[in-house]
Specification:
This protein is mostly helical. It has one domain: Rhopdopsin 7-helix transmembrane proteins (Up-down Bundle), CATH 1.20.1070.10. It is built from twelve helices and three strands; from the N terminus they run βααβααααβαααααα. Helix 1 crosses helix 12, helix 3 runs antiparallel to helix 5 and helix 8 packs antiparallel against helix 9. The radius of gyration is 21 Å and the shape is globular. 37% of the residues are buried.
Length: 312
């Protein structure tokens, strides 16, 4: 059921998410793709986490970073995709006022935390390739703990204003969100107030946080490539590229998908509204599925740990 615009001035207490405005009669078919992707993403990440937990040889800083990435992926999947599937399967479009802004907060915060985790992993690769003799003294368990505390605090402080700025608005008009997700602007534009501050803060925070992470990641890999070109052994070059190449591919895929979503969203009426909505949903599924699978396949120690786990 979709409510009509609220002309009485009564405060909105819940929102209705209709997902794809032009595909409401057929959008449920998307669950044929989304449900298996969700199962794959959750299953692969859970297996990876259990493997790292149980295999003593994987109790090292590099694998702790992978475990952190898997936890973030699981949280992001569970925050968004189950609700989308409930909309498709059972038409459960209602979400409470507080629930909507909680989802907005988790999405904004954990996406930025994941970006910062990629940055720390890029630094891990940089130290491993450029300063191998100092690796064990630089990348320690304490380093991982300090890095985790810093990136959580940094991104929590930077993203917390986003849901608060949206929640403070006066929602006295329509309560129909034309999205599958409680995205900041999709919700804020339903208010009766001025949302220029919301838009400005989102642009500044996204580009400052994600933009700075991406620049530092690319800088790290530039140093890595320069170091690799000076290696004399062909085997050493192959090992270095194998170790960090898969990391870079996943990182670039993550940011490429994210920036495509941002630019298509900004394009407005030039691109059908279903496109950025679908990209936003897929961004909560494809990177989580790929991350765990690629790291599991490309990292020999993890592959052996998974094989040992499955034999029990």
């Amino acid at each position: 059921m979709v409510l009509s615009p609220n002309n009485t001035g009564t405060q909105v207490m819940e929102f209705l998410m209709i997902c794809f405005p032009g595909m409401q009669d057929s959008q449920h078919w998307l669950s044929v793709v989304l449900a298996p992707l969700l199962a794959l993403a959750l299953g692969a990440n859970v297996v990876l986490l259990i493997t790292i937990w149980q295999e003593a040889s994987l109790h090292e800083p590099m694998y702790y970073l992978l475990a952190i990435l898997s936890v973030l992926d699981v949280i992001l999947c569970l925050t968004v995709i189950p609700k989308v599937l409930l909309i498709f399967w059972f038409n459960m479009t209602t979400i409470s006022f507080s629930g909507c802004f909680l989802q907005m907060f988790i999405m904004n915060t954990f996406h930025h935390v994941e970006s910062s985790t990629f940055l720390v992993m890029a630094y891990d690769c940089y130290v491993a390739i450029c300063h191998p003799l100092r690796y064990s003294s630089i990348i320690t368990e304490q380093f991982v703990i300090n890095a985790a505390i810093f990136i959580v605090f940094r991104n929590l402080v930077a993203t917390l204003p986003t849901p608060f700025l949206a929640a403070r608005l006066n929602y006295c008009a329509s309560n129909v969100v034309e999205n599958c997700i409680c995205a900041n602007i999709s919700v804020a534009k339903l208010s009766c107030g001025d949302i220029r501050l919301n838009k400005l803060y989102q642009i500044v925070s996204v580009w400052c946080l994600l933009g700075s992470d991406l620049v530092l990641i690319l800088l790290s890999y530039c140093f890595i490539l320069r170091a690799v070109t000076h290696l004399q052994s062909g085997g050493a070059i192959t090992m270095a590229l194998s170790t960090c190449g898969s990391h870079l591919i996943l990182i670039l895929f993550y940011y490429t998908l994210l920036f495509i979503f941002i630019f298509t969203n900004k394009a407005g009426k030039k691109i059908p509204s279903e496109v950025p909505i679908l990209l936003n949903v897929l961004h909560h599924l494809i990177p989580p599925a790929l991350n765990s699978i690629v790291y599991g396949v490309r990292t020999q120690e993890i592959k052996q740990g998974i094989i040992k786990l499955l034999k029990y």
